Amino acid sequence: TTITGKAEAGAKVTIKRGKTLLGTGTASSKGSFSVRIKSKQKVGTVLTAYATDKAGNTSAGKSFKVEDKTAPSAPSVNRFGDNQTTITGKAEAGAKVTIKRGKTVLGTGTASSKGSFSVRIKSKQKAGTVLTAYATDKAGNTGAGKSFKVEDKTAPSAPSINRFGDNQTTITGKAEAGAKVTIKRGKTVLG
């Protein structure tokens, strides 16, 4: 909300948007000025600065565009499993989306005009791995990252079963560590 620049020493500086007066200030003895305006302006808005000297002579206007200095919001990321290599979600329209694991870049993509993105990464990631998505707008502003965990979507291998006889009621074997093992006869759960 503060516009700075140089003008003739002691000149009154006026900032306008079209015919609307946004603010005025006075250039210092060295010609520097700082004009505070009422509110932030939209990116791409054209403003014009005029300098008026003590004798009342007003310069031609100097037009300038409001630049994009606002970082995009963190992207939202859809659920992502250890069996996938494409990360999808939403980000600012047209933003470049970067997926990182720590400092390692895994992939980049561009959000569509509706904000959807799809980033293909090089390889599947282990369940529990923390990845981060960043959005960078066309002006080069990068927002805060959105961290997310890779979900376990890979079914365990089939268990191996030790020999089991008709004189036993305990079935033993090997399966993925921590996995729940279910024994069925047809659709009937036995244990």
Which whole number gives the mean pLDDT?
96
| Sequence stretches where pLDDT stays below 50 over 5 or more residues | none
Task: Describe the strand arrangement of the main beta sheet, using strand numbers.
Answer: 3-2-5-6
As a percent range, the share of helical residues equals under 10%
Q: Supply the helix-strand structural class.
A: mainly beta
What's the gyration radius in Å?
31 Å
Q: Give me the count of strands.
A: 17
Main β sheet profile: 4 strands, antiparallel
Which labels suit this protein?
mainly beta; four-stranded antiparallel sheet
Give me the secondary-structure topology.
Layout: E1 2-6, E2 12-17, E3 20-26, E4 32-36, E5 46-52, E6 62-65, E7 76-77, E8 86-90, E9 96-101, E10 104-110, E11 116-120, E12 130-136, E13 146-149, E14 160-161, E15 173-174, E16 184-185, E17 188-189
Antiparallel strand pairs: 1-4, 2-3, 2-5, 5-6, 7-8, 8-11, 9-10, 9-12, 12-13, 14-15, 16-17
Describe the structure.
This protein is mainly β. It is 0% helix and 41% strand. It is built from no helices and 17 strands. It has strands at 2-6, 12-17, 20-26, 32-36, 46-52, 62-65, 76-77, 86-90, 96-101, 104-110, 116-120, 130-136, 146-149, 160-161, 173-174, 184-185, 188-189. The strands form six sheets. A four-stranded antiparallel sheet has the order 3-2-5-6, with no helix packed on it. It has a four-stranded antiparallel sheet with strand order 10-9-12-13, with no helix packed on it. Strands 7-8-11 form a three-stranded antiparallel sheet, with no helix packed on it. β16 (184-185) and β17 (188-189) form a beta hairpin. The model has no long low-confidence stretch (mean pLDDT 96).
